[in-house]
Amino acid sequence: MDYLTEDGKNGKWIVCKFCQSKVLRPSTARYEERELFLPFIQKKEEFVSELLQGETLKRHWLVADMFAFENVGFSMTVGSIKYLACADCDRGPIGWHDITDQTKFYIAIERVDHKQM
After folding, report:
1. Strand partners, 75
2. What is the sign of the dihedral through the CA atoms of 50, 83, 56 and 54?
3. Are 87 and 71 in contact (CB under 8 A)?
4. I want to staple 32 with a disulfide (CB 3.0 to 4.6 A). Which of 19, 62, 65, 111 is the partner?
5. Whole-angstrom distance, CA of residue 61 vs CA of residue 1
6. Which 8-state DSSP code applies to residue 8?
C-alpha cells in the first residue's frame, strides 16, 4: 500500500473517487482493519431509506475528530449509524460513524482514491 506511512497513517490526500474532492489531508487518519457493512454507492439523499444491499469492507482509515475532514457530509441517523459521503457530489457512503462514539469515523479505503498533491 503505497499510500500508507511507516507509522500507519495516510501518506497521501484522500479524495472522492467520483469528483476528486479532497476528503482528508495526509497524516490525518490511521489505518485500521475492522469489518463494517456499507450500502452500495449512491447519491446521499437515496441512502437514508432502506439500506439492505451493500458489502462488508475490512480496510479503513480511522479518523478521531470529525473536524479533521476537509469535505464530507453525514447522512441522517439510521439506528445509531451515520454514513459519510462526499460533500461536493453527494456520493457515498464512503464511510461510517456510530454516534455512540464521537472519536471514531471510518473511511473505507476501497471507496476513495489517494493522491499526491
Report:
1. none
2. positive
3. yes
4. 62
5. 13
6. S
Cα separation, 97 vs 30, in Å, equals 15
Return the residue matching grid coordinates 464511510.
95
Q: Is the preceding peptide bond at 39 cis, omega within 30 degrees of 0?
A: no
Of 82, 102, 103, 104, the closest CA to residue 94 belongs to: 82
Q: Which residues contact 7 (CB under 8 A, 6 or more apart)?
A: none
DSSP string across 17-46: TTT--EEE-TTS-EEEEEEEEEEPSEEGGG
In whole angstroms, give the CA distance from residue 47 to residue 43. 7
The residue assigned the cell 476528486 is 20
Those residues with Cβ within 8 angstroms of residue 95's Cβ, 6 or more apart along the chain or in another chain: 38, 60, 72, 83, 84, 105, 106, 107, 108, 111
pLDDT, tens digit (0-9, with 9 covering 90-100), for 29-85: 999 999 999 988 877 566 555 556 889 999 999 999 999 999 999 988 889 999 999
Select from 77, 78, 73, 79 the least CA-distant residue to 44: 73
